[in-house]
Amino acid sequence: MTGPNFLLVGMERSGTHWVTALLNAHPEVSCFPTMPFHKETGEYSQEIGEVHFFNTLASLEPDTKNLFTRSLDNYLTKHQKLFADLVDYKDKVSKEELYKMFTKRYNEVCESQRQDKKIVGEATPAYVFHLDFIDRLYPGIKKLCIIRDPKDRIVSWHRSQVKKGNIKTMVISDQFALDYCQNRIKKEYESLLAYKNNVHCFTYEDLSNHGPETVKNILEYLEVKIDDQIIDKMIAEADFKKLNAKDSGKSGRVRGEESLKSHYRKGIVGDWKNCLTSDQAKMIDDTLADLQAKVFNKYNIK
To answer: Do 207 and 65 belong to one domain?
Structure first.
């Protein structure tokens, strides 16, 4: 039981589900979670969603309180209860033994998602905060990270909160933008800067504007088959309209078109210009420019 061959570790609101769809279209690569596509009956398929494996186990580690961890008790009711029977061992065995039990089960989950392909990976954006902990459990595992313009991320995060009913207005406030910069994006950058080992980082903008070249670099990193026909197919299978059409069974969704109720968004590069003021854009850039430049330099992002 080998478990995952790679992880898509972040970042939030940066296109991780898009990358998952791209990778799943490769004949040698499986990546989960796939989106909860609807069956032909119109019912939801039974997907496990983001497993939140590493940021859940990391909740047992010291000094991780503000790093988007999740309580182990979440497994009692979530993720199809795949880990529910293991939670009770928390106070009965050592922490290291508990980790062994959970990783054995996680390996089984990954193998169930492999689909007879050469390699399998899992995507959960919060993993970017726990890179060293990941290496502790899976030394040397390959890691992918997609990075996106913070301004577009803030717009995407705001729309997701509107969709969930947490925010009632489509107008983005200065405080909302600043909070997301400080509480999420800044911490993601800091985590990447603190990490000593390798992560294959690439940008949403490069994937949008230079898709074939960016996908080729990802496949080279994962050490799987590369040819132009495969890359063209991957990009076609992960096209927004095609993905959104698969998810068209939910009430309020229109096939092939964007809806606030859909998980999929077109994610147009530079869409922030339609949603943020020039002062807000400057505030975001001023807050994060230095950190972002250091990340780009460290991970050779052009």
So the answer is: yes
Q: Phi/psi of residue 99, each to 5°?
A: -60, -40
| Phi, then psi, of 79 in degrees rounded to 5 | 55, 45
pLDDT of 282 above 70: yes
Task: State the total domains in the chain.
Answer: 2
Do 162 and 86 belong together in one domain? no
Tell me whether strands 6-10 and 119-123 are parallel, antiparallel or unpaired: parallel
When pLDDT is averaged across residues 250-267 and rounded to a whole number, the result is 47
Same domain, 105 and 67: yes
Which are the contacts of 16, defined by CB distance < 8 A and separation ≥ 6?
8, 10, 123, 125, 146
- pLDDT of 251 higher than 50: no
Q: Return the structure tokens found at 50.
A: 């983001």
pTM to 2 decimals? 0.90
The alpha carbon dihedral of 7, 111, 262, 218 has a sign of positive
| Burial group, residue 270, by CB count within 10 angstroms (0-12, 13-18, 19+) | exposed
* Order of strands across the sheet that contains 200-203: 29-32, 119-123, 6-10, 142-147, 200-203
Residues 133 and 168 reside in one and the same domain: no
Residue 208, domain extent: 1-148+199-238
Please report the pLDDT score of residue 266 as a whole number: 65
